[in-house]
Write a structure and sequence with these properties.
Blueprint lengths: L6 E2 L5 E2 L1 E11 L2 E11 L6 E8 L5 E9 L2 E4 L1 E4 H13 L3 E7 L4 E9 L4 E11 L2 E2 L2 E6 L21 E2 L5 E9 L6 E3 L5 E6 L2 E6 L3 E2 L4 E6 L6 E7 L2 E8 L11 E7 L7 H15 L6 E7 L3 E3 L5 E2 L2 H13 L8 H9 L7 E7 L7 H9 L3 E7 L5 H11 L3 E4 L6 H12 L3 E7 L6 E3 L11 E7 L5 E9 L6 E9 L4 H11 L6 H10 L7 E7 L12 E4 L2 E2 L10 E2 L4 E3 H5 L12 E2 L9 H5 L14 H14 L10 H6 L4 H12 L4 H14 L2 H5 L1 H12 L5 H17 L15
Length: about 750
């Protein structure tokens, strides 16, 4: 590309992330991927960079290292408490530290403390994930960006909350090697232009044109003659076996009631809602007169096709199709309330929910507990160029359902068909293994098992095993189990990777007391352990001031919220096509992301881009004291963050009139973070962002991008700020303010 890639400050300085280089290898039963994130500090001050990014939900981190100049520093997994102490001590001492944390399935946070002016830093991480087959197809997916989500992430610190920027543009390079039998597979890429290079037992896929990190990379692989596989591996004084089983298909159907939920929120506008409606229409087409169904469209609220389950007769189906076509954009993503409404349909027969959504929402744990309590399963179709995989997989895994992902360029019909096959087949009630030697421990997948889908099983032994394993699969209502024999081969060069993936699979079955020790032993990043690298600087290099925080934003996902369109003309070829003389070239057609002039930018994002034209001038008084204390707080360690709780704001000497307004807002049901978001937006609108400086403005941007802004409350705060600026603290003698518009 002719333009320089990066994120720029208002003064034109190039900041933070410059791009990502990725290479992956698919061999045996694992995919291993190495990512290199490239950062550069072109400012005159030391920086503390914070970047939250996605990885596949099933990824197991294997290595973390930091490169500065010609030196490479290897990370170590230690308990999180110790990692925090080491990080804080290094940064406060003028040295550098680099920390990698897990924020939950599929989300990770990297913090880079004391990146010096002019310094280039390379963060390298390697992860592995078991290969998963659906029938004869497998997908390799590299997530690149996090789209904005609805709601508040309860467990994330302010600097860990992912934000998006219309100014961000990061380059992506990628190569994928398919080894052994995969080298003869047919591959297709619905997300990018790709090129192929075939060699003996190797097929290399690379990006054929300049790419940026605005959409997930997807590689679909088709292979013939798949069968269950097993490997044995020995490393780290541990001997394990890994099995990937392909349960046999069955020809009996089990009828259940089905409620279909369609995400009509603003983030689905454009490509995603078109594809989602197509999916719902396909699902309706799978219904028979013997089926009972419900249909719900949801956004900030939800609307139902009918208040109870309906039989799928021809006239009802026709009316349901018209209902789907009539659904319009419905604002936010109140998925939890829509799911609760769907669960209320349960009546007599077992219930399944089919949810078509981009998953861009936080905090759904309570509704999954309700679904499990009544025995309802949730089947999800994650839609979009940057699906929130952690959300849609959690809903499915926690309730015994299944998850499918589909990009705007792909065919929806195969996903819907696979889900209905899963929903209608008898449940696999038990899988029993007959190992050559009694295992020390075994682990099974954290998700339901369906005929036709592959799943991985791990077992540990006193010594390395060989031979074969017999698996006996029992379906509900069947008296006899179906038997499968699986040969165990040597893992070869993947021994260490397989042992550590196996160790990771056992974490959830361990007690809280032993989980951290197990993770440190096998160097696994968990909720209780982090990767840490510390670097002692020469005395002359150490900065005398604490670094400034820069939260690295994501590129806005292609097509998100109707801000553009992702178009594709897909095609596919196999390695055998190349051998027979087909020209090497792109397997997928052109992908274009076109931004409309107004870009349908969410208001919360537009508000952070406004320039301050009339900065306020502060005289002495309560507001000046508050601003001065806020400035001093910002001069402390960068990751301290802005005060967002009522108690914390009071300690910063917030004027009484503003405290009273906060109390009124809290009494009306607004949470503390939503109130703080409105307060800081009002400070910027009043021109006080200029007084507090770029650090304050950057942190407020992160806060504004993390949730919905209450504009009425912003106006109330501005009125009070204006009154304080004219007359000092304006608390009324009655202890109330006449502000009631929010």
């Amino acid at each position: 590309m002719s333009e320089q890639i990066g994120i720029y400050s208002r003064s034109g300085e190039s900041l933070a992330l410059k791009g990502v280089d990725a290479c992956a290898r698919l061999a045996g039963l694992l995919a291993t991927t190495t990512l290199v994130q490239r950062y550069e500090n072109t400012t005159p001050t030391p920086l503390e960079l914070a970047y939250t990014f996605p990885l596949p939900v099933d990824a197991v981190l294997l290595n973390f290292s930091v490169g500065i100049g010609e030196r490479r520093y290897l990370g170590e997994v230690v308990p999180s408490r110790l990692a925090e102490e080491q990080y804080e001590h290094a940064v406060e001492s003028g040295n550098s530290a680099f920390r990698l944390q897990s924020l939950g399935k599929g989300l990770y946070s990297a913090t880079l403390g004391n990146v010096l002016p002019g310094e280039v830093v390379r963060i390298e991480l390697e992860y592995a994930e078991p290969l998963s087959w659906n029938g004869l197809s497998m997908r390799y997916r590299l997530p690149t960006t996090l789209a904005p989500r609805y709601g508040e992430p309860k467990e994330l610190q302010p600097w860990q909350q992912p934000i998006s920027s219309l100014d961000a543009q990061y380059a992506l390079t990628l190569s994928v090697e398919l080894m052994g039998e995969f080298a003869n597979a047919t591959v297709a890429c619905p997300s990018h232009h790709i090129r192929l290079a075939a060699a003996q037992e190797r097929l290399t896929v690379t990006l054929a044109s300049d790419a940026v990190m605005d959409r997930d990379f997807i590689l679909d692989i088709q292979a013939d003659g798949l069968e269950s596989l097993g490997v044995a591996a020995s490393a780290l004084d541990t001997h394990v076996a890994m099995l990937t089983l392909m349960p046999p298909a069955i020809d009996r159907e089990a009828r259940r009631d089905t409620v279909i939920l369609l995400d009509c929120s603003g983030s689905m506008a454009g490509d995603s809602i078109r594809l989602a409606k197509e999916g719902v229409q396909l699902a309706i087409g799978h219904l028979t007169p013997e089926d009972r169904f419900g249909l719900i469209g949801f956004g900030s609220d939800f609307t139902r096709f009918a208040t109870g389950l309906q039989s799928a007769h021809a006239q009802t189906v026709q009316q349901a199709r018209a209902f789907v076509n009539s659904l319009k954009s419905m604002g936010g993503t109140e998925l939890a309330s829509a799911l609760e409404a769907a669960l209320a349909y349960k009546s007599g027969r077992p219930l399944d929910l089919l949810v078509l959504t981009d998953g861009e929402v936080w905090n759904l744990e309570n509704v999954t507990e309700h679904a499990k309590a009544i025995g309802a399963r949730i089947f999800t179709v994650g839609i979009g160029s940057a699906v929130a995989e952690d959300t849609v997989r959690m809903l499915a895994d926690e309730t015994g359902g299944a998850c499918e992902l589909v990009s705007p360029n792909e065919d929806m019909s195969a996903r819907i068909e696979r889900h209905f096959k899963r929903m209608r087949q008898p449940r696999i009630s038990d899988v029993i293994f007959e190992w050559p030697t009694p295992p020390l421990w075994t682990t099974t997948p954290p998700r339901a098992v369906f005929a036709g889908d592959a799943y991985s099983v791990f077992a540990a032994f006193p010594s390395q095993i060989s031979g074969s394993v017999r698996a006996r699969i029992r379906f509900a209502d069947e008296e006899e189990a179906r038997s499968m024999a699986v040969r165990i081969d040597s893992a070869g060069t993947l021994d260490t990777e397989i042992v550590r993936v196996a160790a990771a699979s056992r974490l959830q079955s361990l007690s809280d007391d032993s989980r951290s020790d197990w993770a440190v032993r096998y160097q696994l990043v968990t909720d209780d352990t982090d990767y840490i690298v510390t670097l002692e600087r020469a005395e002359a290099e150490r900065p005398t001031e604490l670094p400034e925080l820069h939260v690295v934003p994501h590129m806005l996902a292609a097509g998100w919220s109707g801000s553009g369109t992702v178009e594709n003309r897909t095609s596919g070829r196999s390695a055998s096509d190349l051998a027979s003389g087909h020209p090497m070239g792109a397997l997928a057609g052109a992908i274009s992301y076109s931004m409309r002039p107004d870009a349908d930018v969410p208001a919360v994002m537009r508000s952070t881009r406004r320039a301050v034209t009339h900065p306020a001038v502060l005289d002495d008084g309560p507001l000046a004291d508050f601003i001065a204390r806020l400035q001093r707080r910002l001069e402390r360690r960068a990751l301290g963050g802005l005060p967002t709780s009522r108690e914390d704001l009071i300690t910063t000497q917030l004027p009484n009139a503003l405290v009273m307004l906060i109390d009124q807002a809290r009494a009306k049901g607004l949470d503390e973070l939503a109130v703080a978001r409105a307060l800081y937006a009002a400070l910027i609108d009043c021109g006080l962002g200029h007084t507090l400086g770029d650090k304050f403005t950057d942190q407020v941007k992160g806060l504004l991008n993390s949730g919905v802004l209450n504009n009425s409350l912003v106006q109330d705060f501005k009125q009070v700020l204006d009154a304080i600026g004219q007359a000092g603290d304006v608390s009324s003698s009655s202890g109330r303010l006449d502000i009631q518009t929010f």
